[in-house]
Q: What sequence folds into this?
């Protein structure tokens, strides 16, 4: 469900979010406007455009009320490079952990895959054509020019029939290797051409799908970069990026059915047809102009008093984040990224701290504050039933796969919401997350016995909910552990 950003009006963005998130209108509106502003900025003259800084947002609200959910839905819908990171994952430079610049590197990677996928789609037809020829070469190793070359050089024909995977060559459009074999040159007999065409038809009709051929793939095998992440040697990644061409380009032969081989070959050809330098250029431009970073748990790095120990590192993280939010140049393996116009949306519960506990400079870079409200019983009722991915819908579908029909009566939903509110107020308020634990407990029996009650229709009534949950709710100690 990806829609181009410039076709989305703020109202449409809110309407899309409404499909998944109940209430929280203010927050939805704020992110919708921020998204729209990016697009408006694109239409300004270049001089003016540079002057318009993004209006970064802080979303404040108790736990489990939809902050992260808004971010997740936004990312699916906006067609812009987007990542969600946890502020707590980062540590000050010099400490063990990820440095904050890695969030820009991650965002660029997202941009690169996005642009790459788009460009690859644009060459799909050509790639399919090439894959078809390569497949014919594999199926008919002895036919065409390849055979004669093979005989001359004393190599088995199959070797030459492998699609050429020449990494040394630039990835611009190359004539397909196999095209030579098809050319009605003097040395290719008409009979051979005829056979090839016959096979082509069979191939197209899918008659050869189950035949096994041997393809050689040249998938880049990335070295174990992971070893380095999680250390302050993160920049290694930048350098290792260039190294990967050393590791890549290694041919690997594997057997596959024609059907699978076609997929492999198409993917390979698409890879080869797309110019990675162009991808990197476009990706960096898109990240700089449209990128969005959602920083979750920002409250966890805000601290009031300057205690020593762990807080030293928190302050440090804030100090490290600041230049990125203010706009600085970050070196990535695809090139240098200017972060000045990336949109930042931060979120946090701010239980133990307040936004004013953040460094003043950082506060200044997040001019928009929106508060998310604690959820009420009415909200719970809607959350259970309304969103596209509503919990009750999920359970109904899950059990339907086993032939059990669940029928939730409204009175039951009412009571579930009431219990959720009650437990939240008596123990800890964990927002809508409470619904997950309650629903799981409520349907435990049904889930467990699903095979025995196959074909039955189970009515979930008020009485059923009461029977399953009342005892536990009334016993506070018990609910602390179970719900
Ligand atoms: N307003 C809402 N509408 C629909 N579902 C919601 C809403 N609020 C929370 N949920 C559901 O509750 C769960 C937790 O919500 P979410 O992850 O957004 O919490 P959060 O606000 O980010 O909390 P935290 O501060 O703990 O990170 C999710 O599964 C989400 O689907
Ligand atoms: Mg969250």
A:
């Amino acid at each position: 469900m990806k829609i181009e950003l410039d076709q989305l009006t703020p109202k449409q963005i809110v309407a899309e979010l409404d499909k998944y998130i109940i209430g929280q209108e203010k927050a939805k509106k704020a992110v919708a406007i921020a998204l729209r502003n990016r697009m408006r900025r694109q239409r300004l003259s270049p001089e003016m455009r540079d002057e318009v800084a993004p209006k970064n947002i802080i979303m404040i609200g108790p736990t489990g009320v939809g902050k992260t959910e808004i971010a997740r839905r936004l990312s699916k819908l906006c067609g812009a490079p987007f990542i969600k990171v946890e502020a707590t994952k980062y540590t000050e430079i010099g400490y063990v952990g990820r440095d904050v610049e890695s969030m820009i590197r991650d965002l660029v990677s997202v941009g690169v895959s996005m642009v790459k996928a788009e460009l690859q789609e644009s060459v799909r037809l050509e790639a399919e054509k090439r894959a078809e020829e390569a497949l014919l070469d594999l199926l008919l190793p002895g036919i065409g020019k390849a055979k004669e070359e093979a005989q001359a050089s004393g190599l088995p024909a199959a070797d030459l029939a492998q699609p050429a995977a020449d990494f040394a060559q630039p990835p611009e459009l190359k004539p397909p290797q196999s095209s030579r074999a098809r050319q009605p040159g003097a040395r290719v007999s008409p009979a051979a051409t005829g056979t090839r065409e016959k096979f082509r038809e069979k191939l197209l009709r899918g008659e050869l799908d189950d035949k096994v051929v041997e393809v050689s793939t040249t998938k880049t095998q990335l070295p174990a970069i992971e070893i380095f992440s999680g250390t302050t040697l993160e920049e290694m990644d930048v350098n290792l990026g260039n190294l990967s061409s050393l590791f890549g380009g290694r041919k690997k032969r594997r057997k596959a059915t024609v059907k699978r081989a076609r997929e492999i070959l198409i993917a390979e050809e698409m890879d080869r047809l797309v110019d990675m330098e162009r991808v990197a250029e476009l990706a960096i431009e898109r990240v700089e102009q449209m990128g969005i970073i959602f920083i979750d748990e920002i409250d966890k790095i805000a601290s009031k008093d300057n205690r020593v120990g762990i807080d030293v590192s928190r302050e440090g993280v804030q100090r490290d984040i600041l230049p990125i939010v203010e706009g600085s140049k970050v070196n990535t393996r695809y090139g240098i990224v200017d972060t000045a116009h990336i949109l930042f949306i931060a979120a946090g519960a701010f239980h133990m701290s307040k936004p004013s506990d953040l460094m003043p400079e950082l506060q200044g870079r997040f001019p928009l504050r929106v508060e998310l409200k604690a959820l009420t019983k009415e909200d719970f009722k809607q959350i259970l039933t309304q969103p596209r991915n509503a919990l009750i819908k999920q359970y109904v579908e899950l059990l339907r796969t086993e032939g059990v029909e669940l029928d939730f009566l409204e009175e039951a939903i009412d009571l579930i919401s009431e219990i959720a509110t009650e437990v939240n107020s008596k123990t800890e308020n964990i927002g809508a997350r409470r619904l997950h634990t309650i629903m799981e407990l409520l349907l435990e029996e049904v889930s467990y016995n699903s095979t025995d009650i196959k074909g039955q229709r189970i009515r979930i009534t008020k009485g059923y909910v009461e029977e399953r949950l009342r005892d536990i709710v009334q016993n506070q100690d018990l609910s602390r552990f179970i719900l």
